[in-house]
Amino acid sequence: MRVSRIQAAENRETVINVASRLFRERGFDGIGLKDLMKSAGLTQGAFYKQFASKDDLAAQASRRAMESATHRWSAATAANPDDPLGAVIAFYLSMDHRGERMDGCPIVALGSDAARQGDDVKASFEAGISEHLEILGRLIGKTDGEEPNGKAMAVLSTMVGAVMLSRVVNDPDLAQAFLDAATEQVREAVAA
């Protein structure tokens, strides 16, 4: 049975959304096309009508994951307009976010995997990271004549590293300690 163009476009979006979540949970090589397509409610044959390769899907899914992360940052700032940077820090450096394997930060979940992928996946991450830096730069603003970009890079690096480290340890107290230490360091860096 032929699939309409509208249905094909919807199927493509479904696959990208499912892949963005499953890749964050399992890594790019942690799930095969058959299982990925099954999770999207489609057959493996439908994959090749939508994507040139798994690498093509990885780039699309990475872009979607980074867009999702940016939307979550925007939601955090909108929820606390009096302290938007504090809202991002509180959301990002939380045990809840640490536990979100499928919906959490794609930089944390896939950063080392992305470094081993092709240029298209790296470009998706680079665009998303640039957007994160832009948001942080706006939230930090100019302080003591220093441009926000350097501070934004330090803040993002600290936050990503803390969540990644908190995920690789079993001890929840140690995980929390990483998040708390990063929160303190980020607040001090922004205030300086």
From TrEMBL:
Domain HTH tetR-type: 9-69
InterPro entries linked to this entry: Homeodomain-like_sf, HTH_TetR, Tet_transcr_reg_TetR-rel_C_sf
Superkingdom in the source lineage: Bacteria
Record keywords: DNA-binding, Transcription, Transcription regulation
Pfam families: TetR_N
Molecular function terms, GO-annotated: DNA binding
UniProt xrefs under PROSITE patterns: HTH_TETR_2
Matches recorded under Gene3D superfamilies: Homeodomain-like, Tetracycline Repressor, domain 2
Name assigned to this protein: TetR/AcrR family transcriptional regulator
Coiled-coil region list: none
Species of origin: Allomesorhizobium camelthorni
Keyword Transcription: yes
